[in-house]
DUF2911 domain-containing protein
Amino acid sequence: MKKRFLALLTAGIIFVSLAETQAQVKLPQASSSTKIEQGLGIKKVTLIYQRPNTNGRAIFGALEPYDQVWRTGANNIPSITFEEEVSIAGNKVPAGTYGIFTIPKKTGDWTIILSKNANQWGAYQYKQEEDFLRFAAKAKKLNDKVETFTMTFENVTPKGADLSLAWENTKVTFPIAVDQSKEILASIDEAMKGEKKPYFQAAQYYFNNNLDINQALAWANEADKGNTKAPHIKYWKAQIQLKAGDKAGAIKTATEGMEMAKAANNAEYVKLNTQVITAAKK
C-alpha cells in the first residue's frame, strides 16, 4: 500500500510539473495583432487588424481567390471605430464600430465591405444582410513586394485621411472624410465667451481653413499684445498679414519674430520668420 501511494504521489508530481511547464510555454502568433489610433480632425479613428506574412506563398488569385469575400488579413476580421460620422465614397457612415471585408479582383477596383458585425473570425459566417456599406476602391500593382499584410492611414489632413491595405504586390486605397467645421466653429465661439480666450488657436484655424482673414488678423493682434518672447506668434501673425495683403506689416512683424528667435537661439523660427519676409518682398 505504501509503495503504491508513493508511486501515485510521484506520478502526480511529474504530471503537475509537466502541466506547469506546458502552461509556461509562450509562442508568437503566426499573424500578429495591431491596433492603430489615428487622429481625424478633432476626433479619432481606431483600427484593429491581424498581419499575416506571405511566407513564400502566392496570395491573391491563389491562397485568397479573386471574386470571393476575404476576411482581409488573418483570424478576426479588421474592426474600425469612428468617434463621429464620416464620409466614405460619398456615403455617410455614423459613429460606431464596423468590420471590414474585401473582395479582391484580378483587374479593376476591389469591393470594400463595412459590416455591422465586427466580431467575426474569418469570412466563414459572412452574411450579406449584415453589410452596412459596399463600395469600390482603387487597386494598383506594386513593384516591391509587401511581405507582411499592412493597413495604414496616409495623406492625413484635418479633413480626412486615406486608408490603404497592401500585401504581396497589391495596394488598395480609399478616402475617409470628415466635416467638423460647424463643431469647431461652435467651440471657438463658446471659448471666446470665457476668460481665457483662444485668440492664437482661433487665428490659426481661420488662416488654415481660408475663413474670414480680417477676423483671423483681429485675433492674431490680440494674441500678440504684450508679446516679447514668442516668435511663433509673430510668425503666424505675419503670415496672416501677408495673406490679407499687408506686405509691409508682414515684414515688420516677421522681423520682430526673427529677432526674438535669435535672442532665444531658436533656429526654427529664425528660418520661418525669414521665409515670410522673403515672400513679402516678392
Summary: The chain has seven helices and nine strands. Residues 181-280 form a domain with the Serine Threonine Protein Phosphatase 5, Tetratricopeptide repeat fold (CATH 1.25.40.10).
